[in-house]
Write a structure and sequence with these properties.
The chain has about 450 residues and is an alpha/beta fold. The chain has helices at about 5-15, 40-50, 55-65, 80-85, 95-105, 125-140, 160-175, 220-230, 235-265, 285-295, 305-320, 340-345, 350-360, 375-395, 435-440; strands at about 20-30, 70-80, 110-120, 145-150, 155-160, 185-190, 210-220, 270-275, 365-370, 400-405, 415, 420-425, 440-445.
Amino acid sequence: MIKTKNILEAIKMVDELKFDIRTVTFGISLLDCADTNGEKSRQKIYDKITKLTENFVKIAEKTEKEYGIPIINKRISVTPISIIAGSSNDTDYVKFAKTLDKAADIAGVNFIGGYSALVQKGFAKGDEFLIRSIPEALSVTNKVCSSINLASTKAGINMDAVKIMGQVIKDTAYLTRDKDSLGCAKLVVFANAVEDNPFMAGAFHGVGEAEKVISVGVSGPGVVKYALEGVKGRNFTEVCEIIKQTAFKITRAGEVVAKEICKRLDVPFGIMDLSLAPTPEIGDSVARILEEIGLESCGAHGTTAALALLNDAIKKGGIMASSNVGGLSGAFIPVSEDEGMIAAVSAGSLNLEKLEAMTCVCSVGLDMIAIPGDTPASTISAIIADECAIGVINQKPTAVRLIPVHGKTVGDLAEFGGLLGRAPVMAVSKFSSEAFIERGGRIPAPIHSFKN
């Protein structure tokens, strides 16, 4: 039986500490929607998505009310569109993006992910068509999110794709310049992308996934910070223990709601992503957790060690609570979506170089970072290459979601709104990486990748 203490604790987590289910994501395979005729393929895509998700949002909202735990986002992820569109005779893939956007509107979801390509080892027929179409696709749609996997530990880094993506990000920023280059917030590049990530903008439904699944991302930075306030001055062993216990509670609560939604929709349960995903609201910050551990300001010396501790403890606690852990799982450090990160950048304690160091131990990478609009495409590509190298060598997912805000420079503030928040424009190196990026080709996989 559920004890009164547990119920009161859950109420406090929701009402005071901003615990929520950040996303319930409906993953859908579109492999059977491939067709040599592009128009027929798009109709199949639209029909399948709208039919499967007909009651998705309604049931999620009903379950949310019954259990009293907020579900912030309802989303859809689909098979990478480059695979499906590549079977068609079309070369204008923006039409596929518009189809996804229309289907997402009908379904009533917040975002749809999967306008994606996997090019870590080279380009297949549809990959470059899709990549070149991204700026226009993200400027004419509202809910479509795009992701490109550029590298993996097994394949190395596709530097030709890295070069192209620097310019694609610049072009996307320009085409959405009237909204502080918001299109770039819906575009992420990866190394070692996972097939079951429920979070945007990187979600896609991998080809190894089932026909349809529900995956869930839980979040509770405020709950973790509150728990840590009870162990002030104590040693790191006790700090780790309280984080694990808190992660266990958060995961259990989220999984109960998730499985109920799956039961009502008659859709298999996919995974629980344990990631602590912050928001711009006060009291919902990963940066403030790191400061509670003992840092004067996020970015001070010791930040990387504190983040490593947090990331590991979250995973250990969550894995004890669920047998279906997947996705990215750990701690996210998106600048614009975390009020503590925003404050740290404004205070001067956090810069791009320190953020890069932190990505060696966090769940993702350089996320939601605003940079000057006049940053060269080659510099953006070089930042991507650095982050891919971290992922490839450390055998972990890393990502880059940079926003070169058109018309703004260091010290200006970019406003994205909602969960995407706002971000102070951060400085990048003034030294050129152009000759490095112009080499092209592929950086080979590291020696430790050869494990067959």
